[in-house]
Amino acid sequence: MEKIKVMLKNRYLTAVSSIGLLTIIAGCATTESPQLATPSPVAESSAPPVNSSQPLTVSVNNPQTATNTKIQQYLNGLMAQGFAKEDQGIWMQSGNTLLANHQGTVPLSAASITKVATSLVALQEFGPEHQFITLIGTNGKIKNGVLKGDLIVQGSEDPLFVWEEAIALGNTLNQKGIKRITGNLIIVDKFYMNFELNPLKSGELLKQALNNQIWPPEAAAQYQTLPPNTPKPQIVIDGTVKISPARPSAVPLAKHYSLPLAELIKKMNQYSNNLMADMLADTVGGAKIVAQKAAAATGVPPAEIQLVNGSGLSEDNRISPRAVCALFMALERYLQPYSMTVADVLTVVGKDQGILSERPLPKLAVVKSGTLDNVSSLGGALPTKKQQTVWFAIMNRGENVEIFRTQQEVLLKSFLKDWGSVQASPPELTPNPARISKASRSEIVQ
């Protein structure tokens, strides 16, 4: 099911990605540099990760009787519908208290819950404020609106460079005084646009985006989502798109800064964008590195996190229910020094738009779901009155994922009836309001 919907999810993400993405800083560049520099991260917060001796997981033995009994009833109900008990996994804990455990240490197909591991490792690698910088330069001169030479685009693996970003960049180049380019559009390094990994295709998309006269319908539609009176870029490129295996000498013209990494991850998780997740996993060394570093960060045995990609788009991606909860808690621990919570990088039910908007899940829960043809998983944090924040993982496998989804929702609501629902998010599940102002931007190089 997730395989079928992947491109729809990607397009849906593109459709909403204009919110807060376009901040154009204008200026006049007067100083020229001999060549494009290697893109580097924007300065990050100096706050170190939390060093805590408290483990993220608890003993697998002696779960709370009442909660574990309800879990057994839930599993028996699935068995009555023909689902094998050994294909299901549950882990629930509150602080140092184990509430429920069914196959908690057995690695099971996690689907898109894999993205939580990718999120954690990417944040550890780069920091929440990291921005991917796309550098724009030229080997020519600008005169009377004409750039006589090539436009050189040096990518840095920005996973969310979409139509809106390209429009902002085009407007910045117009402000620089460029209306026509006599040479080629040259792509260097890993430049992605609209989730397209092929740099030649990404270059063709960028060429279209820079000239509103040749916009495809999709670009025109995305323009309508931008703030009123946003200029339409008009840059005619006479040449073709070419790929350069080496970084050529170039005079810098402009820079494009992506959203900070934390906001990129939030959008990736809201819309469960598989291509973004795989891109981010690649930036840290690939799925095996993600698995290794995620296991190290959580303290679970490496065998409990087995990944073949960073998105979860394979049933071979296996994570134990215990490890799922540990991943969420490791995210919480990592983000604390930055005055952030898991709600800054994951979906808050009832507040955030995304693929979970239509599911009747408990309000204010902070969650990530995963769906494949025969897999339905759900995990995260459930705020309650009696048990405080309950970290949970429900992992199901069988031929009817809709039944699993319905039963997951019923189960969580039954626990809320026992433990009491909260009217407002607790501090540990409240997003930092300062993150709302974070944005991508394009600027002229001074």
Proper CATH architecture of the largest domain? 3-Layer(aba) Sandwich
> Roughly what is the average pLDDT, rounded to an integer?
90
The CATH class assignment of the largest domain is: Alpha Beta
CATH level-3 fold name of the largest domain? Beta-lactamase
CATH superfamily of the largest domain, by name, is DD-peptidase/beta-lactamase superfamily
Q: Which range best describes the helical content: under 10%, 10-25%, 25-40%, 40-55%, 55-70% or over 70%? A: 25-40%
Largest sheet: 7 strands, mixed
Radius of gyration: 24 Å
End-to-end separation in angstroms reads 49 Å
Number of strands: 20
Q: Indicate the overall shape.
A: elongated
Query: Looking across the biggest beta sheet, what order are the strands in?
Result: 1-20-13-5-8-10-12
Low-confidence sequence ranges: 1-35, 40-53
In what range is the share of β-strand residues?
A: 15-25%
Count of structural domains: 2
Please count the helical segments. Answer: 11
Tell me the structural class.
alpha+beta
